[in-house]
Amino acid sequence: MRILTIVGARPQFIKAAVVSRAIAEHNRQKKNPFIHEEIVHTGQHYDVRMSQIFFDELGLPPPVVNLGVGSGTHGQMTARMLEKLERLMEANRPDWVLVYGDTNSTLAGALAAAKLHIPIAHVEAGLRSFNRRMPEEINRVVTDHLAQMHFCPTQSAVENLAREGITKGVFHVGDVMYDAALVFAPIARQKSRILETLQLRPKQYYLATIHRAENTDQPDRLAGIWEGLRRLAKTCPVVVPLHPRTRHALQKLGLWESADASGNTQALRLAAGPSGNGIRVIEPVGFLDMIRLEEAAALILTDSGGVQKEAYFHQVPCVTLRDETEWVETVQTGWNRLAGSDPERIQQAVLETQPGHPGIWPYGDGTAAEKIVRILLREQKSI
Ligand code: UD1
Ligand code: UDP
Questions:
Q1: pTM (2 d.p.)
Q2: CA geometry: angle at 35 spanning 148 and 364, to 5°?
């Protein structure tokens, strides 16, 4: 069986890493048929710390090709990807095109395959924020309507698809991100030195990430979030591994100067800095360092989908810097609070956080990747 995996953005390298591991395990056990997977990197993310570091750390096989599309408007990026992917898929003709999540790389992979009548399998299908102003929501909806196989992380994702009339080829397999947390957390505890490097004491700092377009592209929202973090940082260090998109937006807003208590307004440095007051901005980190930072944080503030869930996996209270979330279970179980971008609300949400309810686990049993591989093998015959 031949699988063409399309990735391009940071969270996709992490998700694909666990599915590739499951494929390798299938082949290692000499089960039939042999699965030949080729990975295509669209080049959507390209900085070493947004891309290569994940291939190096997570054992994801190197891509057979990097399409090098780089950054641009949605139309530019998607069009560049489509043109290159179409050529590649026509030559390759895989049994499955495997796409992940909700980025422009997901959309382009699905669209190129659909027009060539190549079956599409969508990992992390059925997620909805019900906010069509988010580019991710458009990417998800279109991809789900083009895909033949839908691998849902949660029961609510299955129900979202049913509401849109998608009931065939829908499988509730659990969340591959939970698989990734289980596989890589023990490795991170062993290998990561990030807490020592940054001189952070466990449970005595907050971790924050911001990168969503809805926040970075709206100056009032970004300024509100930054002010919220600045106020929190007066009493507890706030560590921010900064997405390049947010760095550019902060620079544009002139907020960069308040980022670092040491007065260093130039390049970001991943180095031991003053661990007192102030927002501690660092470069984006690899997944192992990120897991360590998450596990040891007193609290996480984020607009990331993946980070909200990882807070839950590691049982760290979370404040989400958005007005809605696709990962509703994290809120329902009491671990996550929606705070939007208002500094007062953010501070209030931090004060109100407490550990959620024990005993509810909506994200599967850590074998989502294995199930995906099994189902792809089984369903290939019926396509
Ligand atoms: C993309 C996804 C988003 C996902 C995120 C994961 C879309 C529409 N959005 O958002 O759903 O949550 O990835 O991180 O696909 N940049 C760099 N270096 C890089 C990558 C990006 O400098 O290696 C900068 C560029 O200025 C670029 C900007 O970040 O214009 C945004 O990058 P882009 O890939 O368009 O969107 P993300 O915000 O990363
Ligand atoms: N992540 C990382 N280093 C960072 C920030 C995030 O390894 O500096 C990981 C994080 O642990 C999670 C994934 O990247 O697994 C989430 O990606 P991101 O927040 O970029 O996108 P989203 O999940 O919102 O689509």
A1: 0.95
A2: 60
